[in-house]
Amino acid sequence: MNGAPELGQLQQWLAFVVRHRATADVAVRAPAARALCPVRDVLAGGVVAPGERSSVTDRLQVYNGAYLARLCGVLAADYPALRHLLGSDRFDRLCAAYVERHPSRHPNLNQLGRRLPAFVGRRRDLPRRAFAAELAQLECCIALAADAPEFAPMPGERLHALPAGDWPRARLQCNPSLQLASFRHPVNAWLDDVLAARAPRAPRRRPSQVAVFRHGSRVLRLDLTPTAFAVLTAIAAGKPLGRALAQARGEQTVGTWFQDWSARGLFVGVHVAARR
Amino acid sequence: MRPSDFVTSDLGIGLGLRTVHYRHVLSQRPQVGFFEILSENFMHTGGRPLQVLDEVAAHYPVVMHGVSMNIGSVDPLDRAYLMELKTLQQRCNARWISDHLCWTGVGGVGLHDLMPMPYTLKALRHLATRVRQVQDLLEQPLILENPSTYIEYAHADFDEPGFLQALCAETGCGLLLDINNVFVCASNHGFDAPDWLRRVPWDHVVYFHVAGHAVRETHRLDTHDQPVCREVWQLYAQAHRLAGGRPTVLEWDANIPEFAAVHREARKAVRYQQPRAAASRAGVGVRA
Questions:
Q1: B123 touches chain A (CB under 8 A)
Q2: A67:B74 CB<8 A
Q3: Cα separations (Å) of A49 from A45, A200, B3, B181?
Q4: Do B153 and A60 touch (CB under 8 A)?
Q5: B-chain residues within 8 Å CB-CB of A3?
Q6: Testing the interface with A: which of B38, B120, B215, B218 to mutate, by most A Cβ within 10 A?
Q7: Is the pTM of this model over 0.95?
């Protein structure tokens, strides 16, 4: 190579080498790397200087090795139960494939794992794939709730003070951390077992519904009945209470639900449309 | 505001604020000169980190230290990110904003690592233009840290101190001098650390970092996972003497012990700030 490579060329080459799933030694020989910096120049120290005790590729390997380790560590922190389910080796392989397909494009690493549930759902090589995808979805809900924008919960008295005649037209605004998810497996119970260091039960099909939300500074997970889930989903979608509660006709515990939800700060506001 | 304005703010000995210490800091209010926050930990979230930050900022001076500005990249500057930095600074009344003299991604993909810049004239011009743009946007001098590096490029027009001098002269930016990184780089690349320190543009140095590192077979790795080694403290003594005193932050990011142990380690800095200690302990050469 005659002279220094252009800065952009140098950065693209180095980024390719760092992100390569194999080692730096393999990466510098890949066609995409050679197109940016000829391998002969690279190995001769024409791009990166060799060290006294290490070759050019040894030095590059420090960055190559750190890249996957760092990103896998971030995903492991966000998806501890998925890692428990798959085992650390399989989880690390999954992460390597994931970051190759969905590299980080955000300054903040807390966004890195947001596409992992869908990615898991598409991986035919994973055992218990359907369960794993749902478990990942639940853990993603937790991360989303933790990082949701700030909010001020609505005092419960405001709901109590709502005239009975206004209830059917009232629309409740849910706190922005609320994530609602329905599953074909009892993933929330499974997650509880993992977090409590209990041996989780073997994954079996049994529908479940979960609300995940932030209460104060804590993220809570609430198992819901199918009816309560339908009501809360309708409320979160902005439907007036009259329509939302139509799905709970005959249900005796509706009042208790609302007391509980309100006490847990699930609502931040109420809007009553003017009568026509 | 010029870097020298920052230099006058003697905040003493500070600590990097870490999640595992939140409870202790909030409940015990330990005597710490200031806290340095990792900016990105408090961005794109409205949860507990911000609540903690509000409380910490109510009782301690805070400074911001980031890892994602990507100042050296050929990618366009991320203006949304910069505006969020500014918003965060206003929220916690941070004294200054720092990041690293490096690039962290290209082509829109983040490596989340501190990739070294080539010390060429072209790179200097590129970096200087972007530093000025950031300073215009943030309306204050940007403070940049010398990173630990594990490669050196084959082509260079400067060595690292020369590059720092030129960048500071062109942009008026400030420097966060990481003493551990100087030592790690000196070991990895075979230069003389005390000599490196003597060539620092001291008028631009705003504060110091100290940290622990790991020794691998072929290199030293900036791990922030153990106490500061004696050689780094000795370099710190020299730097403190040359600078005439600067605020100092201890970074501890992995295998983090209880708060008291981290605090104790940080307070060792006071010992090395004594003129006698500095004079007798300075001048330890580091060779690969």
A1: yes
A2: no
A3: 5, 52, 34, 19
A4: no
A5: 155
A6: B218
A7: no
CB A169 within 8 Å of CB A276? no
Rounded CA-CA distance B72/B126 in Å is: 7
Contact at 8 Å (CB) between A210 and A222?
A: yes
Contacts of B141 (CB under 8 A, 6+ apart): B1, B2, B3, B6, B96, B135, B172, B173, B174
Locate the chain A residue with the closest alpha carbon to B77: A107
At how many degrees (to 10) do helices B230-243 and B179-189 cross?
120
Strands B143-145 and B174-178: parallel
Rounded-to-integer distance, Cα A79 and Cα B223, Å = 24
| Three-state SS sequence of chain B | CCHHHHHCCCCCEEEECCHHHHHHHHHHCCCCCEEEEEHHHHCCCCCHHHHHHHHHHHHCCEEEECCCCCCCCCCCCCHHHHHHHHHHHHHHCCCCEEEECCEEEECCEEEEEEECCCCCHHHHHHHHHHHHHHHHHHCCCCEEECCCCCCEECCCCCCHHHHHHHHHHHHCCEEEEEHHHHHHHHHHHCCCHHHHHHCCCHHHEEEEEEECCEECCCCEECCCCCCCCHHHHHHHHHHHHHHCCCCEEEECCCCCCCHHHHHHHHHHHHHHCCHHHHHHHCCCCCCC
Q: What is the pLDDT along chain B (288 residues), one digit of tens a residue?
A: 666 666 656 899 999 999 999 999 999 999 999 999 999 999 999 888 999 999 999 999 999 999 999 999 999 999 999 999 999 999 999 999 999 999 999 999 999 999 999 999 999 999 999 999 999 999 999 999 999 999 999 999 999 999 999 999 999 999 999 999 999 999 999 999 999 999 999 999 999 999 999 999 999 999 999 999 999 999 999 999 999 999 999 999 999 999 999 999 999 999 999 865 544 444 333 333
CB B78 within 8 Å of CB A107: yes
Between chains, do A110 and B44 touch, taking CB under 8 Å as contact?
A: yes
Nearest to B43 among A10, A108, A214 (CB): A108
Q: Do B221 and A62 touch (CB under 8 A)?
A: yes
Q: Would you give the DSSP letter of residue A110?
A: G
Interface test with A, best of B119, B150, B184, B188 (most A CBs within 10 A): B150
